[in-house]
DNA sequence: AGAATACGTCAGCCTTGTTGACATTCCAAG
DNA sequence: CTTGGAATGTCAACAAGGCTGACGTATTCT
């Protein structure tokens, strides 16, 4: 193991620093989900519905399979969520034009409205954090998070990020 | 609101940037929990057990109430987790010396061993991400996460961080 | 024609969260 | 010394949201 600090200090890689990073992730994620959770409680929906709505809004017309691989859950689990959203008229499922086995998912006006409410709340917190930390901290934040993702997730993340749409 | 971009660009606060931050959090958190989850599956334990073990290890002798407020769950929920860990001999619960109503929680040797296995896996990923991103990115990462926490969680985070122990 | 794909659904299970109710033990204030 | 309240444990019941396995249907590909 020749990881000798070559002049450049590697103090940021001590177990102590890593542990702090881990705990920061844990506590911050709680804040990250707190506001949407608050809005959803009492609305008969949960975090799973939020995630579905978020990614359908982000990629209108996406297929069930694509959503499945982004969310990383089973189709049975997603289906339960999707069914209630469709029944309640927040999501519309259209038979695919080219491949009729597929279903293309869209938010209805009501769905888009809930999405806005949720993402406004979540963005407000993110905005406050970004503003408090400043642009270069934000760049670092993103770099570390990207490096922490699994390969599959990074592909999805980049595909969404690099969109011209 | 006099938050006019004073020469300094505020492009990092656009809705698009914020959305990317949100999605980065979502995808990265999956990676963050993936390795411990893999280790725990088949061991009859889950993420809740991991969290309890982590914070007991971090603060040996902590009380149930303190753990409750760190984890942000109900005592019934924590109790279920704690009971199985105590039964399996991973955690020891000692009656408080000063206040005998309290229970002081400690990891046994077996508990400490599982803790090490889990945190090694989680630290490996964090280390790889930190190393790939570099020290200044790591500083930014931490700054943003801290700013994202709820006030209560930030207090817990800082109390753990600023420990001399 | 037959295999593979995309989707939906039924049934049942697990973990982890919740509320509500209640018992015990013990500290501290009156 | 008694009593109120705090800290803890525990029972029961329930819900959300994961999971597996099996099966059915429509569609498309080979």
UniProtKB/TrEMBL annotation, chains A, B:
Pfam family, one: MarR_2
SUPFAM superfamilies the record matches: Winged helix' DNA-binding domain (SSF46785)
Domain HTH marR-type: 15-150
Protein name: MarR family transcriptional regulator
Keywords from the named record: DNA-binding, Transcription, Transcription regulation
Entry coiled-coil feature ranges: none
Signal peptide segment: none
Single GO MF descriptor: DNA-binding transcription factor activity
InterPro entries given in the database record: HTH_MarR-typ, MarR/SlyA-like, Tscrpt_reg_MarR-type_CS, WH-like_DNA-bd_sf, WH_DNA-bd_sf
Gene3D superfamilies in alphabetical order: Winged helix-like DNA-binding domain superfamily/Winged helix DNA-binding domain
PANTHER family on file: TRANSCRIPTIONAL REGULATOR, MARR FAMILY, TRANSCRIPTIONAL REGULATORY PROTEIN
GO BP field: response to stress
Domain of life: Bacteria
Keyword Transcription: yes
